[in-house]
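Example 3.2
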Amino acid sequence: MAGGKPLLVFLGAALLVGLLATPASAAQPSPTAACETDGLDEPHVVVTVPGIDRTFTDSVTLYAGSTATVVLCDGSEPVSPNDGETWSIAQSDAIADSSALSDGWRIEIAAVETTAEIPARIEGSPVETGATIETTMGATAESELEGVGVLRFADQAAAAEYATLEADYRNASLDVTERASSVEAVTEEISTEGIDAELHDAALTELQALNADYTDMRANVDATRQLLFDAVFARGLAPDQHLQALSATEAQHAATDRTVGEATEAHSTAVENEYRTAADALRGYMVPVFALGLFVGLLAGGGYVTQKGREYDHFRELDSSSSYGLSVLVWPVGIAVVLLAVCAVLLYVSGGWHAYRGVIG
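Structure, written as tokens:
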């Protein structure tokens, strides 16, 4: 069957972005690069967020549950907090948690809508200039992807759209997995019973349905990705949960791809094995049948032509106008064509044509 390989190639050509979260996190400026952004000489505070290649020096709006890095700059150089001994961040309504880094503090935004002037929260090192963080709750959608949980969006429409897209994607992924299981079942039948007309048609039907289901899943996952990307970069908001959802989406998509690839590859191998067996059997039949046909053809056809030749010689003696033309071969060739047609009909009726056409085609 030729339909399995194009499908496998098509499925294998589907590109995955398995490292989505890594490039997004890598876009966050380093503390040194952040301090060099505005060229100020006096001490000042800047904020960077995962997934955005930008340093916030004035204000930034963040979702509840997202994270950011606060960097204290002395001119163009970051000041190390030394685990809080040099400088630290006082707790506030906007900050749910904080932890010291080598060149700054990592903060987690609290689930509240408020504003925090970061310079005023710095302890241990007086600073007056710097960024302000505004927090927003946004609208929420409960993700059922592994390890994701609650996702926050700018408004209820975006949250509802994501919930619908994720549900459609998960259902489409389940459909593909179940269809791959159906292909595996047909493959098992082919491996144990051999391929015939019925199994050939059943396999073709399942593969076509798998292709359609996979196309639907691809459309759903692309739409889900796009909405998550939009949420990550919307209005400067950079929720870590969206990056985590992207990573979980890619992980599930990759797992589904592996399942489909294994099913189609196993089917292709099983069919190729059947064709190979059919080819060996066909060669085994062709040699003796060809020899027998050659013998019978020479015996019957040769005898017939010889008889006609003798009649021609006899008539030639009686009448010089007698001719000996190609019409003598009509009967031998006609019988051969009839026998070939009978063999072809028997091969088709027996179901062997579906297997043999892969050998002879």
